[in-house]
Amino acid sequence: MLKIKDKDVVKKSGEAEHPIITFTGSQIDQVAGFVFAISPEELKQADAYEVDDYQRISVQLQSGISAWVYVNAKENT
Fold this sequence. Notes:
The protein has 77 residues and is of the alpha+beta class. The protein is 22% helix and 23% strand. It has one domain. A hairpin with a 5-residue loop joins β3 and β4 (66-72). It is globular, with a radius of gyration of 13 Å.
């Protein structure tokens, strides 16, 4: 979990702590989730919403499809 310091994000989400993906180096670690089909404009809106602690990267999922995910920017640099 990541403590969010941006008051606008906390107000919009109603939560002061948000989940974040952090690379562990272990191939057995997985993140359960859903893939959403969104428009380029919706992706821009998601990028604008996320705080600097998050970084969007493209990954190949276990299913074989590629998707954007937000990960811990401090761990991914």
